Amino acid sequence: MLNNKTVGYLTASVLLVFLLKAIPVCAGAAEIKIASWNIYWLTSEDPDHHGRKANDYARLAAYANDLDADVIALQEVDTGFVRKVFPPQQYRIELSHRRDTRQRTGFAIRRGIRYRRLPDYRELSTKWGLRYGTVIELDVGGRKIDVMSVHLKSGCFDRDLDRPIIESCRELKSQVRPLESWIDRRLERGRAFVLLGDFNRRMDRRGDDLWRFIADGNPKPVYRVNAGKRPKCWGSRFPEFIDHIVVGPIAGKAVKPNSFEELTYSERNYFGWRKRLSDHCPISVRLVF
Hints:
By secondary structure, the chain is an alpha+beta fold. 29% of the residues lie in helices and 27% in strands. It contains nine helices and twelve strands. Strands 3-4-2-1-12-11 form a six-stranded mixed β-sheet. The protein has a six-stranded mixed β-sheet with strand order 5-6-7-8-10-9. A hairpin with a 2-residue loop joins strand 6 and strand 7. The longest helix has 22 residues. The protein is globular.
């Protein structure tokens, strides 16, 4: 006859076996947090002499720590200065190889994250001065994911791209076809991808030309993780995002629900701090494969 203590052990054992059988569905899951951050002229070519001091870099590094992302797509950075924010003992840095400027795209990648550097996507530099895309291939739980950090032409935030009448819009339009080609090649090959960075475009506007061109559903639909959301950066000073996270069908299915975040600064004086911190706030999302 079983006593109460034995029954208790058996009940616990049965419960443990039940739980262990339930775990394998998620046991192999791998999660990664991917972010984008334009860190306003974090370079040695500081045209306005922003004059960041040591405590400003420490403040940026503290925000990078709060962001706590595994992979951060960067814009407006240079090698030596980005290491002040993402220390080499914690992150590996991969920046575009474009040599005619130090305002480059790139990545800070937490050490331990498996990845492979791919060639720069130079096709985005359709005119002298336009930036390359920096591309890496992540290995997340055995799933290969192409990730590109971009910084498109500024100055054409919501104007017509079908009939561009100003130079910045003509330059931005020239980047549309290579951007669409990069996406389409991955869709055709069944590749998972994340395209993120500073698009310099308010793509939430109904019928936006840039989004219409790159999300035409041919060969497959793509998605913006932050679609329909409103930025809170600098007290919601800006009505719509110009930084975006774009994913294809495979990465789209891996987006963890409600995981999109925008990290805002505790400082409140935009004009006093935007050149010492950034006029952009980091955005991020989590993927689970």
